[in-house]
Task: structure prediction
Amino acid sequence: MDTMRDRFIDITSGLLDEDPRLAVVLADISAAGFQKAAERHPDRLINVGIREQLLIGAAAGLAFTGMRPIAHTFASFLVERPFEQVKLDLGHQGVGAVLVSAAGSYDWPAGGRTHMAPGDVALLDTLADWTVHVPGHPDEAEQLLRHAVADGDRKVYVRLSAHQNEQAVRVEPGRFTVVRQGSRGAVVAVGPMLDAVLAATENLDVTVLYAATVRPFDGAALRAATERRADVVLVEPYLAGTSANEAHEALADRPHRVLALGVPRAEHRQYGSIPEHLAAYGLDAHGLRERIGAFLW
Amino acid sequence: MTNRPRTSPSGFGELPGLMALMTGDEKHGPAATSTLDSLWVLYDRVLRVTPETAEAQDRDRFLLSKGHGPMAYYAVLAAKGFLDPAVLPSFGAYDSPLGHHPDRLLIPGVEISSGSLGHGLPLAVGTALGLRAQGLHDPAVWVLVGDAEFDEGSNHEAVAFAGAYGLDRLHALVIDNSSATHGWHGGIAARFAAEGWSAETVDGRDHEALYRAFTTEHPDRPRVVVARVESKNS
Result:
């Protein structure tokens, strides 16, 4: 299976051929993959070098002239390092862009904390009107990318990861999908967390909702899934609690409980592999089973 | 929207009177007057943009990066008919379109919202790239930066890239009133020239010198004009 990042490069290279309004701005990351597209479209495939403030500023400038820019690098350098550019050059200037990240929270554990950005979605939550897609499979990444590019001039963040599910879910952008029906509460699995959530809840009488779009947060789907019992577990592949406020807001008019699972805030100063990190965070099937079981029973 | 265009454009001599209508940001007074002559020469003789073409895709773009002390900018926009002089006294008021830093969504003809330093040059780079990608090789992109603003590292990302990329429709105007805390040893123009820009330093109060510097040919490379004015603290 290809990775979401491979798919992003393939799809975006094709979209450059089809859509004269599309421009891609890189900061060295993935430049080799875009080599052929750069030869075909030297004016619309722009690598600014290792300059992430310029990456976002230039994307916004392209949008000023009516282009639809995609800016791409690792999440740490796309959202966190140039955060003020994200806030001002896009939000305050009133223009849109598609930000496509790779490496997310724990994709390269041997790379250590410098290449981990579990706070990216929480940071975007401090700003208005961001759509946030967190696909769990390359097919979903493709669908959501195409949707993001065509999504007018909106501000869209597409969070790609090397951690992915075995199979794609048929998703509708902006909506949660009911993957399993149950009666004793709902577990919301975000993007790459689905396989572990399904394994962890295999013998539990719970609804499993799948979210490949987390902003806007599909509060209506959460309400519908918790009509009989308003207990919610969120399982997110980034900072634990990022969507807790959204869940509380969706259920504000009824007594409810929320358990928010995700990547812990404290720095986990270990190297190793993705599975080792997921296990250490309690986000593998075993860890999830224990915590979800204790909360819902 | 209260800022209707005027019918008869004004001259340079009217600018002090227009600026005097704006009160409340005296702290940034030196910042405002440092830009006055350069802004006037640009809008009066160089930029191909009018209130009627402020949305035209082939207009020249002027991006005020140094948004501090925008009184001279507002005065020039009023003199050139982008802005009704009657709104100038509302400067900084709750429902005024004129803030102590400009907002592009509130004032026709204002290309960027500024205030936080170091954003204009990267935005100008992207604007020049966007015009080039659409085959619009004629419109010029201008960005005004202050010498203290040049401290911000984001400028240096943009200067190095634009020089290497040969963004020849990009123009930077640096207003140098010696306000950078640690100064610029060897001058600011040298920083741009080292990255491949066409660079010139002129007297920022000399309208003819400014005009000549603004209109000098610079094939295949971006252009910077450093306009030196009296020191902020003099």
